Amino acid sequence: MSNASDDLPEFFKIYTSALSSQFMRIPPDFITKFAGKIPTTCTLQRPQGASWKIDVCKENDCWFFQKGWPNFVEDNSLQDADFLTFCYLGKSLFYVNIFSPNGCEERGQSAGTDVPRRVANINKNPNFTAVLTKGYMKRGAVGMPIKFWNAHMKKHKRSRIDITLWVENQEWKVGVVKYRCSVQIEKGWSKFVKDNNLKVGTSITFQLTDAKHLSVIVTFGRPN
Predict the structure, then answer these.
(1) What are the E-state strand segments in the chain?
(2) Distance in angstroms (rounded) separating the CA atoms of residues 203 and 223
(3) Are 72 and 98 in contact (CB under 8 A)?
(4) What is the DSSP track for 52-97?
(5) Which tops the pLDDT comparison, 147 or 100?
(6) 161 near 153, Cβ under 8 Å?
(7) CA–CA distance, 141 with 153 (Å, rounded to integer)
(8) Radius of gyration of the chain (CA)
(9) What pLDDT is stored for residue 5 in this prediction?
């Protein structure tokens, strides 16, 4: 259970097929976040944009993801020891990341039941998605997966590089910094957030369309 006050409510689970193939228990400490108003149905959304409707049920004083959960397991090819993080964005919506046991994201690239055409097009190019949290807003930065940096930015052989973010026909120059254990988009990020009126809970997809000139198309999934 994550208790970082700067971030959206979040919990993690380690998948075990013997215990979680038909339902997944929600940590009791997380349930208290709902202040007694627990949704009976929620949506699990993946970075690729796919989403699943899941029933939330109570049994013996414990709460579980039940109806719809087996479909989520199958569509995302979950395997024993996969590490899942569930970030609650409000309005019964969870943003789910899945990591294989070696720590690499992302297991499960299935389309699921609801893939917008825009997301399908994005998947043709290298991309990643981040959710804008209070912590990111305060720091004026947002994280980039190290795996993405190594695959597409490392070849420039610098720990600090500038990239161009495009939203429709407008562009913003931002700076990316590679630290020892993380990669952050920092310089110019606060202006980008302000200019696009981004709010906490917005999911932001970065699509690398020109690896040589480091041009990135950005699209948003607005919070409800």
Answers:
(1) 10-14, 24-26, 41-45, 51-59, 62-65, 83-90, 93-99, 127-131, 142-144, 160-167, 170-178, 183-185, 203-210, 215-221
(2) 8
(3) no
(4) EEEEEEEETTEEEE-TTHHHHHHHTT--TT-EEEEEEEETTEEEEE
(5) 147
(6) yes
(7) 18
(8) 18
(9) 35
Record the tokens describing residue 211, joined without a space.
């690896």
Name the amino acid, one letter, at 93: L
Q: What are phi and psi of 179, to 5 degrees?
A: -95, 180
Q: Give me the pLDDT at residue 47, please.
A: 75
- Residue 7 confidence (pLDDT): 53
Phi, psi of 136 (to 5 degrees): -65, -40
For residue 157, the SS3 value is: coil
Q: How far apart are CA 37 and CA 85, in angstroms?
A: 22
Contacts of 51 (CB under 8 A, 6+ apart): 43, 44, 45, 112, 113, 114
At 91-143, the pLDDT tens digits run: 888 888 888 776 665 655 443 333 333 333 445 678 888 888 888 888 899 99
Q: Is the pLDDT of residue 213 over 60?
A: yes
**Long-range residue pairs from 25-29, CB within 8 A, at least 24 positions apart, any chain:** 25/62, 25/63, 25/64, 26/56, 26/62, 26/63, 26/64, 26/65, 27/1, 28/62, 28/63, 29/1
Q: How many angstroms from the chain centroid is the CA of residue 119? A: 14
Q: What is the pLDDT of residues 47-62, one digit of tens each?
A: 767 889 999 998 888 8
C-alpha 63/C-alpha 37 separation (Å) is: 13
Task: Answer for the pair 178, 186: CB distance below 8 angstroms, yes or no.
Answer: no
